[in-house]
Design a protein that fits this description.
Length: 768
């Protein structure tokens, strides 16, 4: 089952939906915003200037023009990319107050079928970056302990101790995710407020060492630094390090739905000022100490820690560790949002999602949390030091930013209808981000390969899931329930079949009020007919309100057949068995369903609601399926992914319920087979050659994909061809059976017997 569109219901049955207006500006949510959104970008001063200085040859090479040029690039990168592109432009492209690359794609996907590719590439890269961020930020903070003599005496150059502490912190961080980002945000908000004040104050105290740093506000300083080899040994490749200052910008956009747009608008100016002051303070310290040979000889010299007096450095390291944890939290939270949006767009498999918080968008996905947990620990063990991790850091996020630029260009051009502005936007920001991208590519063989590998694996999952869904849609058939009411009524009263349940429930992703998936009707009538007192076809819809508890029923004019849409708020746990009991009790009280009295019970007053069984239907590939080799591999991988992500029984709290699993073939079209010729009894003792017959093809109807994209477009010919053949090949034209007429591709030979028999369908199971 999935979150689907509202069905077209009979007059009077529609439930009015309330529009969700977003999270308003408030002091409490401002604190949450500081705690959830800015962790990643807020820790960038810890390593940005350090990386630039290291690639330019160290402290002694950092002359005034070099420092001012580097600071200018940092300041204007924060201004152009974070402030203008994301805060002022991207955040206006929200989807019901939700942000992020998938929310943006959902707004523009009708403008071009190919847009699904930049969405998938950008989403995969952002998820890969989310795996790397916790590892690099926490490791950097713990390495800061070495700047304190007391801890250096304990740790020394033993990196194993740093790795062990980092892994312990990461484990604690991922364990507490189940508490919800609202609770975490409220705890982290005050800490991040102190952190940004600390950044700003330490920056101001060091700016006095050289007031010339304010000349870095001139953008020409950055341009000169970029192209003048005499003051910039790294050349254009320095942009790969400069880009580290804005890596949290995409997460800021993704987390918009968690804290509300007004709260980001209110907090970003404060955050940006504190960041720039700290960078200026680091620059002033470098200019004041670039002649010190003793400092230049310090391994992994980091001006971020050096600008604080040693007697206060322990406080700085503690705050840095806390801020690093919060930076990790920002990316983890953003990853949950991205995966949730990908699930809604059918780019990823349905997973169990918890809603532990009281605020919209704040979710917890156990499987994603555990995968990121393992991957982050692996990154720490693989790279071990922050300097090695920084080589991989930032490459993936440049890809995401480029893909966001492509989608924003489409949004400005097609939705806002401002073609000139769109062209200016894509040329300006595209050029800047392409320079960042090619600069970051130089890090590929020094660790960037890992980020690319992770992003590629995530993209493959999305590609397989989306293409597999398009293949499945070519075989989907929805039949009118009214055609089968008489048969189901006869089955309900047929004493030749035992009653398997008072209430038999099928989960369906179809929200139409008058049709059902063929597989469900086939399961009831053909696959060991299932007799029950009442049948329910349940569709779950998640609403934009947090606490919705509503349902809509279509009874088809009967007292035993019910199509139910259960409408639950986004933070309501979807344990459908408990809600179904209430629905059935309501139907009994209203006289729409006969009381289901039981003769025996442990209770003095017997309930009027009987027992429940849930039937989960799942598509499978059969060995006889006629499907191309590539498409077969796609479907095999998709079903393997689906197996890892669990079943609807877990998603909807049915672990302790009575569940029937059934498996139906994905494709009814089968490979060429030969007819068997029976050997006469008189010749049974001798070998006789069998005559080969023509191939028996089984054609199944199909339904066009819900979302029109490049995948469904490629399958359109198959869809149309199957639809035509189904019209002439299915017995009776409207049967739910999997036993279509067998159509020969060759003329039957005269010596073959007439054979109008049909083949039984392979066994059927749980729906995607």
């Amino acid at each position: 089952m999935s979150n689907t569109k509202m069905p077209t219901l009979p007059k009077g049955a529609q439930v009015k939906r309330r529009k969700y207006t977003g999270i308003p500006l408030s002091a409490g949510m401002i604190l949450v915003a500081l705690g959830v959104v800015y962790g990643d970008i807020g820790t960038s001063p810890m390593y940005t200037l350090k990386a630039i200085m290291a690639d330019n040859g160290g402290l002694t090479t950092m002359g005034q023009d070099t420092v001012l040029g580097a600071l200018s690039l940092i300041i204007w990168t924060l201004t152009l990319i974070t402030t203008i592109k994301y805060v002022l432009i991207a955040m206006k492209a929200d989807n019901h107050n939700e942000g992020g690359i998938f929310a943006l794609y959902s707004l523009v996907r009708r403008c071009g079928k190919w847009l699904i590719f930049p969405a998938m590439i950008g989403g995969a890269a952002l998820l890969a970056d989310g795996i790397l961020t916790p590892a690099v930020t926490v490791t950097t903070a713990i390495e800061g302990l070495r700047t304190i003599d007391f801890f250096y005496a304990i740790i020394g150059n033993n990196q194993d101790i740093v790795v062990a502490i980092t892994i312990i912190i990461l484990c604690v961080l991922f364990v507490v995710q189940r508490a919800g980002t609202s609770a975490i945000g409220k705890a982290f908000g005050p800490i991040m407020t102190v952190w940004f004040l600390f950044l700003g104050i330490t920056g101001i105290l060091n700016i006095g060492l050289d007031l010339n740093v304010f000349r870095a506000l001139n953008p020409l300083r950055g341009i000169r630094f970029l192209f003048d080899g005499s003051i910039n040994a790294a050349g254009l490749m320095v942009l790969g390090n400069v880009f580290l200052c804005t890596t949290g910008a995409e997460a800021l956009y993704s987390d918009m739905g968690h804290v509300g747009k007004p709260n980001i608008y209110a907090t970003w100016p404060f955050v940006k000022v504190c960041l720039i002051l700290n960078y200026l303070g680091q620059g002033a310290w470098i200019l004041a100490h670039n002649a010190s040979k003793a400092l230049a000889a310090t391994p992994d010299l980091n001006p971020f820690f050096q600008i604080v007096p040693e007697n206060l450095r322990f406080l700085e390291v503690v705050l840095s560790a806390m801020a690093s944890i919060i930076a990790s939290q920002a990316l983890i939270t953003g990853s949950f949002s991205i995966v949730s949006e990908a699930i809604h767009l059918n780019l990823m498999p349905h997973m169990k999602i918890n809603f532990p918080s009281q605020t919209k968008g704040q979710i917890y996905i156990p499987l994603v949390n555990n995968i990121m947990w393992v991957a982050c620990v692996f990154v720490v063990l693989l790279f071990r030091s922050s300097s090695h991790m920084e080589a991989a850091y930032g490459l993936a996020i440049t890809v995401t930013m480029l893909m966001t630029t492509v989608l924003l260009y489409t949004y400005i051009s097609k939705i806002w209808n401002k073609h000139g502005l769109a062209l200016l936007f894509v040329l300006f920001f595209g050029a800047i981000e392409l320079m960042f991208f090619f600069s970051s590519l130089t890090k590929f063989f020094h660790g960037g390969y890992f980020t690319v590998l992770m992003a590629t694996l995530i993209f493959i999952v999305m590609y397989v899931w989306r293409r597999g869904t398009a293949i499945e849609h070519t075989q989907s058939v929805y039949l009118p329930v009214s055609k089968y009411i008489d048969q189901i009524a006869q089955l309900r009263d047929d004493d030749d079949y035992p009653i398997i349940a008072d209430n038999l429930v099928f989960l369906t992703n179809d929200s139409s009020p008058d049709k059902l998936d063929r597989d469900i009707l086939y399961s009831i009538l053909d696959k060991r007919p299932k007799r029950a007192r009442a049948y329910y076809f349940l569709n779950v819809m998640v609403t934009d309100e947090p606490n919705t508890h509503e349902f809509i029923v279509n009874n088809y004019g009967t007292d035993f057949l019910f199509k139910v849409q259960l409408r639950l708020g986004f933070k309501v746990n979807q344990r459908v068995n408990t809600y179904l009991y209430q629905i059935v009790a309501d139907l009994v009280n209203r006289g729409q369903l006969a009381p289901q009295q039981h003769r025996y019970s442990i209770y003095r007053e017997h309930s009027t609601v009987g027992d429940f069984r849930f039937c989960l239907v799942r598509k499978v590939l059969t060995p006889e399926t006629e499907i191309s080799g590539f498409n077969r591999r796609i479907m095999e991988i998709k079903y393997m992914i689906r197996h890892v992500c669990g079943s609807p029984a877990r998603w909807y709290g049915l672990e302790n319920s009575s569940v029937i699993y059934e498996y139906v073939p994905l494709f009814a079209r089968t490979k060429r087979q030969h007819r068997l010729t029976r050997v006469p009894d008189s010749e049974a003792g001798t070998l006789a050659p069998s005559n080969s017959g023509a191939m028996k093809r089984v054609e199944e109807p199909m339904q066009a994909a819900e979302d029109d994209d490049i995948f469904s477009d490629k399958m359109k010919r198959d869809t149309e061809a199957n639809a035509v053949e189904v019209e002439h090949s299915v017995i009776g034209g409207d049967t739910a059976s999997f036993r279509p007429l067998r159509v020969d591709e060759e003329e039957p030979e005269d010596d073959l017997p007439e054979d109008d028999s049909t083949t039984d369908a392979p066994d059927a199971g749980e729906k995607n």
